[in-house]
Design goal:
One of its GO terms (molecular function) is oxidoreductase activity. One of its GO terms (cellular component) is cytoplasm. Keywords: NADP, Oxidoreductase. The chain has helices at 12-22, 42-45, 67-77, 104-130, 159-178, 195-203, 213-226; strands spanning 2-6, 27-33, 54-59, 85-88, 136-140, 183-188, 236-238, 243-245. The protein is α/β, with parallel strands linked by helices. It is globular and about 50 Å long.
Length: 247
């Protein structure tokens, strides 16, 4: 039984990944949503699953520093004794603004949700990841978090978001460095056709984001399957073409 933990599965990339993993036989998919009791997630609960696969929803409010611990306690009580793959997907994108105009409240909120929340998740999941034979940690990052490419990609207008994703990239590299049997990798999924992605695309003068959710699934799942300590871990990849980004 392969156990996958994905944050932010109520919509967008998280929802698409959840459905894709459920289509594989022998998978337990643990997905976080704000409130698992909310009726709006009933269609997700009833989504078809392959033989031997199932979905477990847990409640994690993105900025909470206590919800992840409670969720893990519930999972242990339900018999979950390891996590093979953790995908830190949940995130927000504040309004685009250059550094001098970025609202500090936006910077703080983005950092809490895009950087601190994945760190809290890693801390509480670590014992379950350690119990896996070949644990994998995947951070859904963004090219906007690349410090090296800030000029090349014209990323200056995305101050609050860029700071938070650069922080997430650092966490990913640290997970790799401090856990010698892990595969830990950050990925840029592309500018994806989600509510957040389309807003970002419009801020860049595009009508909508160019990458579909199907594209993300078709690229990310094989990438995670084939990720190794030697070739993948500790790095930052562009899923658009499989190339490596500089941090």
């Amino acid at each position: 039984m392969t156990v996958v933990f994905i944050t932010g599965v109520g919509k967008g990339i998280g929802r698409a990944l959840t459905e894709a993993y459920l289509a594989r036989p022998g998978y337990t998919v643990i997905g976080s949503v704000r409130d698992k009791a909310d009726p709006k997630y009933q269609d997700l609960r009833s989504h078809p699953a392959a033989s031997g696969s199932k979905l477990i929803l847990v409640s994690i409010e993105a900025a909470s520093q206590t919800d992840p611990k409670t969720a893990v306690e519930e999972l242990r009580a339900a018999g979950i004794d390891h996590v093979d793959i953790a995908i830190a997907n949940a995130g927000i994108s504040p309004p685009a603004a250059p550094l001098e105009a970025a609202a500090i409240k936006d910077v703080e909120e983005a950092f809490r949700i895009n950087t601190v929340a994945p760190l809290v998740l890693f801390q509480v999941l670590k014992p379950l990841l350690d119990a896996a034979k070949a644990p994998k940690w995947v951070s859904i990052s963004s090219a906007v978090g690349s410090i090296t490419n800030i000029d090349t990609f014209g990323l200056y207008p995305f101050g609050a978001y860029g700071i938070s994703k650069a922080g997430l990239n650092w966490i990913t590299a640290a997970v790799h460095n401090g856990n010698k049997n892990y595969v830990a990798v950050a990925v840029h999924p592309g500018l994806v056709q989600t509510e957040m992605g389309n807003e970002g695309a419009r801020a860049m003068g595009l009508e909508k984001a160019p990458v579909s959710l199907d594209d993300v699934v078709q690229r990310l799942l094989p990438f995670v399957d084939g990720a190794t300590r030697e070739k993948t871990s500790g790095k930052f990849f562009n899923l658009d073409d499989g190339s490596e980004f500089a941090y």
